[in-house]
Specification:
Keywords: Coiled coil. It comes from Streptomyces musisoli. This protein has 952 residues and is mainly beta. 7% of the residues lie in helices and 43% in strands.
Amino acid sequence: MTQLRVSFENLYVFEDEEAGDTRIGLYGTVTGTDGAVLGTFRWNHRNGPVEDNFDYPLDGDPALPSVLQFELNGAARVSVKAYTDNDVQWPDEGHHENFLGEAEVLIDNRDPATLGRLLIGPTTTDNGHPGIVVTANVQAVPPAQRSHVRLVWKDLVLINDENSDFTHMALYVRAQGHADPTDRELLRWNNNGDRVYDEALFPLSYGTPTTVFDLVMDGPTRFFMEAYSHDDDLWPSAERYENFLGRAMFVIDPAEQATLGSLRLGPTQTDQTHPGYLVTLSAEVLPPDTTPDLQITGVEATQAVQAFHSPVAPDNAVPLVAGRTTLVRVYLDSGVSPEEGGGLVTGVTGTLDLNNGAYAATPLAPITARPADAVQRTDLGHTLNFRIPADRLVPGKARILVQASVAGSVSNPVELLLDVFAAHPLDILMVRVETDTVPAPGDAEYITAVNRLTEVYPIAEDPAKSIRYWLLPGNEVVHTSRDLGTLAGMKHFLNDLEDVQEEAADYKKLYALVDRRVHMERVGDSRREDNVAFGYADLTASVAHELGHVYGLEHAPCGPPDDKPKNTDANYRPPDGSIGDVGVDPVRLDVYPATVPDLMGYCKASGATTPYDQWIGVHHWSRLRLFLAEHAAERAARAARPPLELPAGLVAASMPFPGPFVRVRGSLSVSGTVSWSPALRTAAEPAATRAAPGQGYEVSFESATGEILARTATEPRFHSAAQTEATFTARLPYHEGTCRIVLTLDGTELGALRVPPAPPHFALLAPAAHPQIDTEGILHLRWRQVGGDTEADPPATFFVRFSHADGGTVLRPGVSLTGDSYDLDLRDLPGHRRCLVQVIATNGYHTSYVQTPSFALPPRPPKFLLAACEGPLLHVQGHSPQHGPLTGPALTWKVDGQPAPVTGGSLEVRSLGPGTHDLEVTATDPDGLTVTQRLGRYDGTTGLRVSPGPGL
């Protein structure tokens, strides 16, 4: 028996028997003399049309391989036939308009004259014309053998991109056959996102981690390549392209020398039948000995998670951000056959160069290289690992050059050119929660918990640069009597927190930390549209998850179909809610397998040996980076909110509050019942909504005649099947003539709130004059509602608002009050020469206020917000009641009583040198007010604190 390979190469159509183009079905068959079918092939130009007098390549379709391989001992017939039809995708003997004829040739493995390149045809059509001719190549091939084959992709010559100017191009290569794995994408290339042009050569090593691939082949393996172009898409593909640049197929057989060595593929044929492109590469069988022949087969740069050989994204598609430690993982092939001691080569080291000498590094440790197919990505010991410090990665282009070496072998150098994006800081409103029985967590516990966001968020690694903490004097600690053990209680507590956040800018996100001893139905909750969240100190389960919602992320689709979290991201990949690729903490060097659940889902990893049983995935890292960049751009573009025009003196009898918008809140039960909370006029403007009018959930204001005065989209969010009601909020422009507030779904009314005809009436009883205000103590506010016992004038809900006359500072220390008094501690409120306190009342829609006389408060000195200060890395932030966070040059250090050269909120104690050192830090606000904190004595070698400072 002899192994024969028949390759159907080209089809020439003389006559398709149609006036224009048409569809074709071509069928090839190899039949033994005994009638046994040895192989079949079919082709229909991928459902595309064909025309007279055109030549078509038959290779390049992985679904319909044009190469047949079989055993033969004697003679066989190779036959072809074709049919055409304008409307049938696969014309055949039973369904066709025209028969283009049939032809055959005889082959015999004993007669070399019958082998080689053959012409089958021309055929004769059913109208007596020349039909088609097929070119085929028949050759004897040696028996299959298992070998270690190295492919090196070199250059692409673009002949015609079918575009009049520069365009984007993407090339894709798949391996299929006797390779391990047997069918996978091997290479994708898009010139690193740069445009291409006709009649030019492009190195394939540009823009890809590697063009070297080592495959274990058990026999001949087919490779398919195809390319597309598109003016506006960086990765044109079969699903999205403007021009198809052609396909090609080739076979590499480690037992057949003719398929090895230097190879040229193409030129291909474009969809306009022009020459498209050609590719050069080399293929070699590695010798079965123990001499190392190192080759880099891939390079991955990761800051938390990275796409690498991923089915859903190109290699290194997950963006890097400046100011983060980056782990560069170099994947190697030892160049030694697995049959030789497992192919292991010990003591492999190497070099890394960043930006042409700006930074150089050696690996964290030498490794043992192995055959490429034995490398496990979840084992850091299988890759050569380099660490780029956080301060070395700046916005712009990062050019990373790596090379590996061992005695007697130096690998190919591989260069990686990556974009590094600016990191944007988070602005966090710091609130600590106390209950009737459990005190609030401390500052250090809060800051330590939220600082861990730097481990999983695309922000700078140094918390002093990536997180700005804001305090709301009077609301640093929020007391709640809500039953947080129920979902309803948690939703209503979000309302309370939104009342606190209301006066702050929307870029300041409130996270309220709850002590673990407080029983809650879930570990946290959040509301994106109101910029509020709360929960325990758990990083992935609460802090990162709930703030992720506030910053725009939806749920990962984790869990069984009947218990998946609601509001999942329909575009999330992979669909099982896992992180989708291997995650790595570059500092701790913890590895998270691709199957670990994403932190925006509800699933947990079982038997996890890493600190967290969730991690951030490819999808959410990329989306969160975009969201944070958009937040920063919107903040920079948005003008400061103009202060409300309020009189500068006493308002004893209530007046309409001049807020231009109305905040509406309510809840919707699963049975469709709507409950309303009091609406309130406010200065906070509504967020932009994209819903079409009359679609989805909407809140609208109606006049007495039913005219819609204002409308906006809203969304009651049911997070799980166990949730019996969902809250909703909306903000709309105030209309004095509003008579009803209505919630609708797709235009159908679900519930309405009748609006009282007039604002609430009440009077300020105290303080009635300036002497009644103790600016160094407690301000005792007293008021009395006038009316409130009739349907026309229902009881009001009250809020206490503190502001400066110029509107630069606004706080809301008292929220949702139902009594007629409130004691406001003035001692920590921001100082100003003219301070005012308003009591605001709403009767469900209309809003009124009274106001104290103006009074002066002295500027308050700054304070420190300290995380755990055990070392070796110290992070501190100052906060001024008048000016907010104090960071950067506002923070100065002293070491052993002498000024340190470093400023800012971070200090690496080990940089101070051996011995023990006394450390203190000073914060200075723009008015020159200062506060100094002694942190204690630290060991300069270990960086750990030996003895704490006073009060720590």
